[in-house]
């Protein structure tokens, strides 16, 4: 019998040790700066050049962090390298799972990626660094070089739907896995959070690693409240056997 398929569903909490703030936790960005949510809300972003200017400045600040994978990201990559079938479903847009060594084809980015930009008019994609270089050079709201359209990060903003193909793949993984580990997510944002319930209903062992309670704790076979940077590596080492 082969090794069980492990699905790792990651939220903002897995990346806080890399210096990326979470959004909804007790010290989350939305609680500290409620107005910041407008910078990543599609309707506001498309309608207001000033919102776009502030959004690009925010991206530049985040970019300066030059975030690197932490022990939790590396532990997931090590599990995959060790021969355990692993699929990562992430709410994060930081690309740190791939930087840690998880093959890109095994990572489903539900909310897109902040490492690229996309034109809202023609769909052309390019690197985020290139766009931020233009901002640094004096373009407060850089336009698409192909058609002049409005550029945005290749992330799913508030007010936008998830990519149906990516979501369908995530549902298939949730329903087909043997172990579903939800780590660093409040499990409050739908439809992504419902994947934990789907996995449990399909018979997977549900393990939740998160500092705060989640709506899916009652369904979990195991709930771990320890810090993610130490708890997840220990858990994955146990699973790897």
Relevant terms:
alpha/beta, 241 residues, 9 helices, 35% helix, single chain
Task: Produce a short descriptive summary.
By secondary structure, this protein is α/β, with parallel strands linked by helices. The protein has nine helices and nine strands.
Q: Which residues sit in consecutive blocks of at least 5 with pLDDT less than 50?
A: none
Overall spatial form: elongated
- The SSE string, one letter per element, is EHHHHEHEEEHEHEHEEH
Number of helices: 9
Helix content: 25-40%
Count every beta strand, where a strand is a DSSP E run of 2 or more residues: 9
What strand order characterises the main sheet? 3-2-1-7-8-9
- Rg (C-alpha, Å): 18 Å
Mean pLDDT: 91
**Classification by helices and strands:** alpha/beta
Sheet bearing the most strands, described?
6 strands, parallel
What proportion of the residues form beta strands (DSSP E)?
15-25%
Distance between the termini: 15 Å
SSE topology sketch:
Elements: E1 6-10, H1 29-32, H2 42-47, H3 49-64, H4 71-81, E2 86-90, H5 96-100, E3 107-109, E4 112-119, E5 125-127, H6 128-136, E6 151-155, H7 164-176, E7 179-183, H8 194-201, E8 205-209, E9 222-224, H9 228-240
Parallel strand pairs: 1-2, 1-7, 2-3, 7-8, 8-9
Antiparallel strand pairs: 4-5, 4-6
Helix pairs in contact: 3-6, 4-9, 7-8
Can you put this structure into words, describing what you see?
The protein has 241 residues and is α/β, with parallel strands linked by helices. Helix content is 35%, strand content 17%. It has 9 helices and 9 strands. The protein has a 6-stranded parallel β-sheet with strand order 3-2-1-7-8-9, with helices on both faces. The chain has a 3-stranded antiparallel β-sheet with strand order 5-4-6. Strand 4 (112-119) and strand 5 form a beta hairpin. The longest helix has 16 residues, at 49-64. The mean pLDDT is 91.
